[in-house]
User: Fold these one by one.
Assistant:
Number 1:
Amino acid sequence: MAIYTILIILLILILISIIDIFFLYGLVSTVVFVLFLPFYFIVRVLNKKFLYGWKEKLGFFKAPLLGDKVIMYHGVSVGEVIALENVIKKTKEVFPDYKIVVTTGTKTGQEIARKKYAQIADFITYFPFDITLCVNVFLNKIKPTVVLIAETELWPIFSSSCKRRGIYLYCINGRMSDSTFSIYKKFGFFFKFVLQKYTKILTQSEIDMNKLLAIGAPKEKTSVMKNLKFDIKASDEKVEIGQEGYRVIIAGSTHKGEDEIILPIFKEKHEKYSDTKLLLVSRHTQRIPDIVELIEKTGLKYGYRSKGDTFKDNDVILLDTMGELSKMYSMCHFAFIGGSFNKTGGHNPLEATVYSKPTITGPNIHNFRDIYWLLSRSNAGKIVKNPKELSDYMEKLLSDNDFYTQACKDCETIFKDQQGALDVVINELKEIL
């Protein structure tokens, strides 16, 4: 008797799922979520991890009165949040009557969002768990007119709820790695229904667009917008540190352990190429005394930007002032981008590439993986695995003029090919708002 009862229940669920596949997904995901929630808390506490954002993700947050004109941007983590910077600023400028809400999925993403958008966004919080109750509570409080999700996060309940409520839903700057694509393709029968809920799906490249089409994205709603991260402009501000006549190498945003790598390599190059100079920029200025000790061991002459020291009298200048790094890239021969020989995940190479300067980075670049993928397809950017490869590639850029010239041209080409994404998003918003 019990078996027949179970079979009947399953049959009913299957029939309902045929009518609305999201019902079954929502039912199962809610049951699983409730069952595993206690274990989630126990594991996180035992691992001594702070339960970041769990209240907000469940819907327990107090939102300001935002009204009925709300534009919401979502970036799951650091890379996506950074990519949204220019488009969020432009949105605020073009649509001043609308409130801006920014959500993230991770703690680090939330920290960056609060740092970058505190004076721009009207509210910053976490994206809800993709559970019917959590999503409904969230949407009831935020009441977005339009939601723009950076890159490719496919949340079945959230997308279905937006469609049902008449909320415009966009995937912008969409991309999909090969590994993610192989997984999604296996469940294309399901994700096809999710993708159909979107108003528009705008991708970084034709490759990304074709991957999404292959898992069921509607052709009439899917197109290429290029990459938001490339919509930056070079500064016209002139820099003077006595660099004329020298080839300046910039080691930008270095972290502990990276100065120990770059200084011996630079000394070797400087002894071979006397016209080379190094601008060393630590990500954290409190580390400068430790870096000075490292420089003194090399015997290189050094000075400080804050004291007005120049390359005419020094081999190395320490940039110990704030907010100047991006414009300094305009004068370099090429740049090493730090945060890539540790677990930081890299820093933005486009601050150098925008000036047509080639970049080199270590292997850990997950915060900007999409950017480095584009740069490394040409000579605009190089990902090296270890200090030996770093030294070898620096040698190539210093010794081979034709190779260096081509690397600079590659930087220009990539920017020309990729810019324009910001205007695409703004124009899409103009059509619906």
Number 2:
Amino acid sequence: MTVPATPPPRFPSRRSTGLLASFGHAWAGLIHTVVYQRNMRIHVVSAALVGMVGNGIALGLAEKVTLIFCVVLIFFAEILNSALEQLVDLAVQQFDEKARLTKDAAAAGVLVLALGTVVIFAAILVHNWETVRTSTEAIVRQVALGLPLTACVTVLVLPQPRPRWVDALALMGGFALLAWMATFSASLVFTVLTAGLLFIAGSAARMRRRERGG
């Protein structure tokens, strides 16, 4: 007598499926990628450095749009790469050469975008070299404030366990430095971009602590 196969368990549905809930799920996916993907953490810190440059140097509209588009595109590619890795791991429970090649190809796509962004960033600086050369005071100020701000972002996205007060100090210190930089920022758009990155880093630290039960 043939025993009927047990049907697989039904995938649990989400408790809420409205528009706001969809945004919430997407936000959770973004923060999860920052928490668990090392390369995404590197992208967040690199984007903060880009924001520091955009805050300090007066760039044209085309240069601003290009830099922001590059940052967003790299984030998108890394999130997609993370989702693809999870999907491959779910479908293939043991080592498979095609699965490895799939992951490598997806990672290569992110690498190409990152290298292209570096080239574009360098080309923008070269094209605006006269502006850079005559903005010595602004650059010194951005380095003095931007590097500590970037350090705050780095602390928040690091995976190592640390006391809660360290994250709180890094988050408050980062927003205090950003508020100071905003008073003489060359671009409000890059100020908002940096604020968003700092918020993402803080949310990642919060999720990591919550999952560890700290």
Number 3:
Amino acid sequence: MSQNIIISGITSFRNHGVEALVVSTIGQLRQLMPGATYTVLDREPDFDNSRLNAPDVKFIQDYTIRPLYGPRWRSFLTTTFPRLDRLAHHAANTVRKASCVIASGGDVFCSE
């Protein structure tokens, strides 16, 4: 059975530190788990896929990434625009089906 590894918290490879974390994580995991596939939950999947175009890596849009919305604004958006909530639910379903989830990105562990 193939392992599907999710990497979350990715804002964009425009931040080269974020890119370095993802690329090195996938590189190490490839050695430990040959044949695994990787799904990167990402704010800019098209750009990031152009930087790391690999057959075992899939980038999908993550509409839940914090920097775009503060708590009050996000609450307003999700009650006003239910589509946002459905998109977040899609990301949650992707995570539920994963073999492993790795929180990455750099700023996901800051105090704000």
